[in-house]
Amino acid sequence: xxxxxxxxxxxxxxxxxxxxxxxxxxxxxxxxxxxxxxxxxxxxxxxxxxxxxxxxxxxxxxxxxxxxxxxxxxxxxxxxxxxxxxxxxxxxxxxxxxxxxxxxxxxxxxxxxxxxxxxxxxxxxxxxxxxxxxxxxxxxxxxxxxxxxxxxxxxxxxxxxxxxxxxxxxxxxxxxxxxxxxxxxxxxxxxxxxxxxxxxxxx
Length: 203
Hints:
Blueprint: E1 2-3, E2 13-20, E3 23-26, E4 44-50, H1 64-72, E5 76-81, H2 92-106, H3 108-111, E6 113-123, H4 125-135, E7 157-161, H5 185-190, H6 198-202
Helix pairs in contact: 2-4
């Protein structure tokens, strides 16, 4: 892991990946396929992964194999970590993701990526968070980290892989989880039963 150089914002974590032989290793300098920083092509298109896990589980670690198709085709890749619902409720997770985008964009030259071509993708809870990244580029109301606050958190592409978009309608589609329960992943993420916190859910 690597931490933002601001002790108050230690929870913005990211991993950059490169391939070494048959194994994936984290690199904090570059995320090139099979090469270190000195072998990078500058201004690579950048793809960032946000992990799933119901906002309460999961980790940015272990993303190397998932990033491989992008790295093999000339993209840079980063796996973003965020505070889980057991650590902090909404909007902590999206604030962390936006902080990570700002941090990596602010260091684009050093990392060899193109700050104007950033795409994000995530699955499940990660899909929900990348959708928020895509629709909140100009929003600054979620207690966001002050490090690099003047750097844009906008992204240029979003891939939401089966992430929810409307919490209040999730029980319209019966499944194993009662999404309206106070202990549902969505309610724990919001910090209260979703049907009683509709204004917060709407954010």
